[in-house]
Amino acid sequence: MSIAGIVWAQMAADLVLLHGFTQTGASWQPVREALAGRYRALTPDLPGHGAFAERPASFSATDAYLRAIVDGPYVLTGYSMGGRIALHAALSLGARVTRLVLIGASPGLADPAERAARRADDDKLADRIEAIGVDAFVREWGAQALFAGICKTLRSGGRLHAQCGGGPNLHRAHELAEEIMHSSTFVRFFGDWPGPWEFADAEVTAERLKTAGFVDIETSLEEASTTLATEADYREFVTTVIYHPHLERLPDASLKQAFIDRVTELAATEPVPFTLDYWRLNMQGRKP
Predict the structure, then answer these.
(1) Which of 26, 83, 157, 195 fits a 20 to 30 Å CA distance from 92?
(2) For residue 176, is it within any domain?
(3) Which of 49, 74, 103 is the last residue of a domain?
């Protein structure tokens, strides 16, 4: 069977797991590992995501996709957006779906006015995604949810005092890594990978705190470069603290070792060897 020019063979599965918005089927990997030996789990990338980022996303497209790649009957599970899709698919696919498991999902808002307001908010989010891209939006959204959760937890008059990496934090450390990532040995493992980091500046953070509900907001950046005493100290520290997301993308121990060897060699030639260019973002605010 062919979908959008791709030939698929139907797969047997006891459990189909549908991921949330901006995620991919790989997001379910820890769950698949936990269920191994008990269930045959299938975790496809949904239309508009991952390997199918260019495919139009719609309920009907996803229904056709599931019919093509899954040989039922099976339990259908969905998280967030995947849960909404699973609700529709359960009605559309009939006896193929024996059970439905929803995580962080519901049929939606019953009140027409609330639905209209939610649609308007979603349109604004869609415009923001188109403006800055999915990767930047995911990082921005995660930070906003964090601040909103903290504000909700505090009592009236409670204060937030926090510090984290911000602004140009570890810029030079990431430049060293990028030089290695784009070398012939490693480029196939990284491609255009943007990394999981977002170091917001003081202005962006102040706006996020305000949006979350804080007042009396103060934010600032301060340089806090740190020099490791020896090559061995540097190697151990960056392996576990700085470059572990890079190492997770490399398939074997020899490549991981080669990556750390090379970044350590580069760090040794810096004006101040084995120095990490930390910048600290200070923030505080009060819940009204």
Answers:
(1) 26
(2) yes
(3) 103
Examine the domain organization and report whether 201 and 153 are in the same domain.
Answer: yes
Count of domains forming the chain: 2
Whole-angstrom Cα distance, residue 237 to residue 234? 5
The neighbouring-strand residues paired with 262 are none
DSSP string, 220-270: EEEE--EE-SSHHHHHHHIIIIISHHHHTTSSSHHHHHHHHHHHHHHHHTS
Query: Which of 166, 229, 128 has the alpha carbon at shortest distance from 237?
Result: 229
Q: Is residue 91 part of a domain?
A: yes
Extract the tokens encoding 237.
Answer: 């520290």
The type of residue at 60 is: S
For 125-175, the pLDDT digits (tens) are 788 777 777 767 777 777 778 888 899 999 999 999 999 999 999 999 999
Structure tokens belonging to residue 45: 């990338």
The residue type found at 152 is K
pLDDT, one tens digit per residue, over 75-117 is 999 999 999 999 999 999 988 899 999 998 887 788 889 889 8
Strands (E), 90-150: 97-103
Last residue of a domain, one of 56, 72, 103: 103
Which H or E run contains 12? Answer: strand 11-12
3-state secondary structure 143-187: HHHHHHHHHHHCCCCCEEEEEEECCCCCHHHHHHHHHHHCCCCCH
CB atoms within 10 A of CB 24: 18
The answer to pTM > 0.90 is no
- Identify whether residues 279 and 143 lie together within a single domain: yes
Q: Structural domain of residue 71, as residue ranges? A: 2-103
How far is residue 48's CA from residue 23's CA, in Å, rounded to a whole number?
Answer: 10
